[in-house]
Amino acid sequence: MKLLNQLFIQNRQWAEQIKAEDPHFFEKLASQQSPEYLWIGCSDSRVPANELLGLLPGDVFVHRNVANLVVHTDFNCLSVIQYAVEVLKVKHIIVCGHYHCGGVIAAMSNQEYGLIDNWLRNIKDIHYKYRSQVDAIDDEHERQNYLCELNVLEQVANVCYTSIVQNAWRREQQLAVHGWIYDVKDGLLRDLEITVDGLAQIPDVYRSSCQKVSAFHQQK
């Protein structure tokens, strides 16, 4: 219990420090939430979005799960994306993985971990898709890190394939999806140079179309 009491003490110290820098900070924060960024990251405790971006509370909307996945049956993640895009009107969605990700490393093994194996299956699918490229790398840590990067690439695509993001682009809403990766060894973010900001960058097969849906119902 002493540990938990210490957390409350640290919270008061943090709040006092913030108010010393800006006496009206929490009043302004309570009145509205208007971040420009949605961060989709890993649950890993070493990868805190606000801190590593140098941003204050209220500056970034955050969703985190094991291995920063965007799964189209995950209504938690999809609800976050919808709220961020349609209500908060964020301008940037950042999918950020990190090197030496435990979820990615676990997915590369054939070991059974329990319930999480069903979640890690999504990363195994990526490993299988790029197996020739991944397995061609001799160094084990480099293989793991390369799959971490590929995982970010695939999750950026999954964000872009949602009807939420595509409808935003149809409304000509300013929105870009980025793929980044973080290195816990040096604390630095790296841009994987994966940025999508419009429907033209989406393969035809993944583009939703209201007109096609209407035509389908007419045929029925």
What labels would you give this structure?
220 residues; alpha/beta; 5-stranded mixed β-sheet; 10 helices; 16% strand; globular
Describe the main β-sheet briefly.
5 strands, mixed
Number of strands: 5
> How would you sum up the global shape?
globular
Strand order of the largest sheet: 2-1-3-4-5
Beta strand %: 15-25%
Kindly report how far apart the N and C termini lie.
63 Å
Structural class: alpha/beta
Mean pLDDT: 92
SSE pattern, N- to C-terminal: HHEHEHEHHHHHEEH
What would you note in describing this structure?
This protein is an alpha/beta fold and 220 residues long. The protein is built from ten helices and five strands, in the order ααβαβαβαααααββα. Strand 4 and strand 5 (188-196) form a beta hairpin.
Quick overview of this protein structure:
With 220 residues, the protein is of the alpha/beta class. The protein is built from ten helices and five strands, in the order H-H-E-H-E-H-E-H-H-H-H-H-E-E-H. The longest helix is centred in the C-terminal third of the chain and has 21 residues, at 140-160.
Task: Map the helices and strands.
Blueprint: H1 2-21, H2 25-31, E1 37-42, H3 49-53, E2 60-65, H4 75-87, E3 92-98, H5 102-107, H6 116-129, H7 131-135, H8 140-160, H9 163-170, E4 176-183, E5 188-196, H10 210-219
Parallel strand pairs: 1-2, 1-3, 3-4
Antiparallel strand pairs: 4-5
